[in-house]
Amino acid sequence: MDDRPADPRARAALTKRIRTRAALIAAADSAFSRRGWAATRIEDIADAAGVSPATAYNHFPTKHALLGTVYEPHVRGLIRQAEQDIAAGRSVVEALVDQVNALARLSWYHRGLTASFTAAVFDYTIRTGRGPDPDDEADPRILAPLNVPFLLLIERGQATGELRPHPPAAEISGMVVNLLLVRSINRGEEPPAVTADLMLTLLFGALRPELVVARDGDGAPWG
Fold first, then answer.
1. How much is the pTM?
2. How many whole angstroms separate alpha carbon 147 and alpha carbon 50?
3. Mean pLDDT (10-residue bins), the chain, 223 residues
4. What integer pLDDT is reported at residue 16 of this predicted model?
5. Which element (helix H / strand E) includes 95?
6. What's the rounded Cα separation, in Å, for the pair 59 and 223?
7. Phi, psi (deg, nearest 5) at residue 201
8. Half-sphere exposure of 88 toward its Cβ, with a 13 Å CA cutoff?
């Protein structure tokens, strides 16, 4: 079904709005990747997209919201994969190994953008002084919820007994993602395999310690 308005003028206005939003996202992706969080202004992004700052703010009320929107497509694919793995009844351990490696590679490949996203998350957390609020549409933690793929898989593994029930899925998924985010700033050039190894050791050290013990001293990649 075509959801576009029937009126030609309304369709033209909608098309223009969609194109403007896409131009802003593309300009923001490039700016945040190259210049970082602190050095990038919405005014500069608007200029690169060929629109006024007022138009940019009409689409994205804050820089945090814009960056969260830019990063969201990367997270969407990871969430979709986690949902597919759960629906297929795949081993949660295997799915988590693949998820961590995929996120580590994504973070490294888009390391400039990931470092900016990390700075936005930390800045927003400090400004609000609270955890993510699902009703806050400007929160980059809500717009691009990096922990959700892990949360879904861990909850599944804890429900089936494949993973230990403690710590809670919300806690350990956040810890694993925070490890990645911190390293995106201070270890940006670190190979993704090294980051993934640390994340998986933390994850399974808490939820399947026998896997870590069995692997001790081996040094082989997880999975």
1. 0.89
2. 34
3. 61 80 97 96 96 96 96 96 98 96 94 95 95 92 96 98 96 95 85 92 94 74 62
4. 85
5. helix 92-109
6. 43
7. -65, -40
8. 11
C-alpha–C-alpha distance, residues 77 and 95, integer Å: 14
Report the C-alpha gap between 141 and 173 in whole angstroms: 13
Q: Does residue 82 contact residue 156 with C-beta atoms inside 8 Å?
A: no
Taking phi first (over 0 means left), then psi (-120 to 50 degrees means alpha), and beta for anything else, what does residue 219 get? left
Name the residue type at position 125: T
Q: Which residue has the tokens 């999975």?
A: 223
Helix axes 192-207, 92-109, angle to 10 degrees: 150
Residue 13: its pLDDT value, please?
66
Q: Structure tokens of 170?
A: 């919300």
8-35 and 111-128 are packed helices; what angle lies between their axes, rounded to 10 degrees?
A: 100
**117 closest CA partner among 40, 47, 199:** 40
Reference 155, options 104, 75, 82, 74; nearest CA is 82
